[in-house]
Amino acid sequence: MKIYVDGNARFDGNGTKKRPYKLVNEAAKVAMPGDEVDVFPGTYRENVNPVHAGTEDAHITYRSVEPLKAIITGAELTDNWEKYQDNVWVTKINNSIFGSYNPYTTYVKGDWYLGPVNKHTGAVYMNDLQFYETTSLNECVKGEIYQRSWDQENSVYKWYTEQDEEKNETIIYANFQGENPNQENVDINVRREVFWPQETGVNYITVSGFKLNKAATTWAPPASYQDGLVGPHWSKGWTIENCDISHSRCAGISLGKYRDPENDQFFTYQHVKSPTQMERDAVCRGQYHGWTKENIGHHIVRNCNIHDCEQDGIVGRQGGVFSLIEDNHIHHINNMQELAGAEIAGIKLHAAIDVIIRRNHFDHTTMGLWCDWEAQGTRITQNLFDHNYAPEGTAKRLEGAMLSQDIWVEVSHGPTLIDNNLLLSKGSLKIPTQGLAVVHNLILGSFTYVGEGTDTPGHGAPQPRYTPYHIRHRTEVAGFMTILHGDDRFYNNIFIQKWPAKDPDPEENLEVGTAVFDDYPTYDEWYKPFKRLEGTFARETDMEDLMEDHFGHLPIWASGNVYLNGAKAWKKESNNIVNDKDKVEFELVETDGQPEIKTNLYDFIGNFKNKIINTDTLGKAFEPEQRFETPDGDDIDFNEDYFGNHRGVSTIPGPFTSEEVSVKTLWEK
């Protein structure tokens, strides 16, 4: 059945085409499996709360009749501004509009939030430009540039809030830099979410073709409730497609965790346990609360434009398992630099089990993609990463903010597959982890946190950080182990030292290439202590004799890589090209607004080729003993490039089959 919604209808109706509902939420109360809710153009100021679930064969579909012309927003217009001083105007809002959740008394805070707790979940916008919150009225009046912002020109637009307890009013002051707010489109965050079921388990919903924006979302740490502007709220089988999602105070899309009353912001309010321990707690309690392959995940997020959110474009612990994230443009995330903590990225996922992240464009985010814990069976393929670092002239990042890079894989046991990507930022891979396969990528930036960043400081010696690994292609925990580092494979990549490594005291490694693994063993070197027991059983002192070897670095494999402009190779790699004499040019340019590359790198590769890499080449990740394979357990042959072109019986390194292919448009906006 079709249910119709038209906010411009003369009268509210019953959902028929002749008498449509005026609110999407009215349709959400009655839509049943197989129904389609068609929403006509207009602005819908509401939080859509789907009540009923669809089924695997009969989704409930919410569709904008005209793509991106139906706008669902968590903001309300304000047109009663009065002049206060200079460029600053003031408005007063009765708190009854906020109900039980007032964004102007609610601060962004929680576990793993490391910045100053002085920003509210509310926000002020003029013509969709988000203003910067100040901590004093005087600061608002001054309207000075915020030097940490990645968009300093617009950082002079400020707002400040306080409460009139006697009148039960929220007072908002805003610096409009000479504009009259009553003549502009000015709105403020009012609702916490925009399209979000209030109950868990509302499965098989499709959200298609909407503009979804402006939500007063809260900080979404991994062991706590993770809300988003839009998302499935701990359910199964959602599809979010062809949407424009923007201006969430924290997370745009949440594929994340439910609220567990016994483990929700535990460290923030009870303090006595490490938030890392509460993450382990969340994994185990999640299994008790139904975190299984049959119940949770299997979502699709595709062809969305996700931007201007201040924590994440997409966030999720555990709820995003077995999902597909493809063909999205994720950009300008955390550019205001008002928030700081350990959960900020274009995409930040914990437990991305069997998640495929492909053909996305990540740019102008403080971090592109962060896979934290349990990136088991995760495949990151055919993505473009660029400009994921602060612009020149930006002040040092906010205290508590993370360093920037394209991809961070943290304390996982693998197998994690990174193939056919363009990693074009100053930091390419932060990898305090193990069990990686890095195949056919073009890499301009450095590898960082190799062999470090996995222990927790304490009284005395640092404490190892034990993280789980799982039954293959399932969520059930198979075991816990600390990170030994290594167990990584590097095949057929191109490394270019784009930015000179001249800083004598860098915060982290600046040198491009695999030489950061020089101290790591080959497989034969690693296996040598165990080889003497091959074919027999252990006895007497064997366990004690091998104890140190059980906790040593795991081996590295590398072959077919190209190192240019001073990029450095792992000293034990033999089949490669190392050219530190010729100058390689590489630029990412825009032609008619579309990204392309200009380079002479292929002049220096010549006829160098290597074999086609496959699942058998890569072997198994050590701890889970799982192959680098598809979620269904099938083999992978790396015989397709970034564009999907066929490679043949042998291949040149990098993400393209040929120089001719490399000059094509990399991403179509």
TrEMBL record:
Record's GO cellular component terms: extracellular region
Main location class: secreted
Glycoside hydrolase 120 insertion domain: residues covered: 79-188
Domain (Right handed beta helix) ranges: 236-389
Subcellular location: Secreted
Keywords attached to this entry: Secreted, Signal
PANTHER family named among the record's database cross-references: PECTATE LYASE (EUROFUNG), SECRETED SUGAR HYDROLASE
Protein name (record): Uncharacterized protein
Lineage, highest ranks first: Bacteria, Bacillati, Bacillota, Bacilli, Lactobacillales
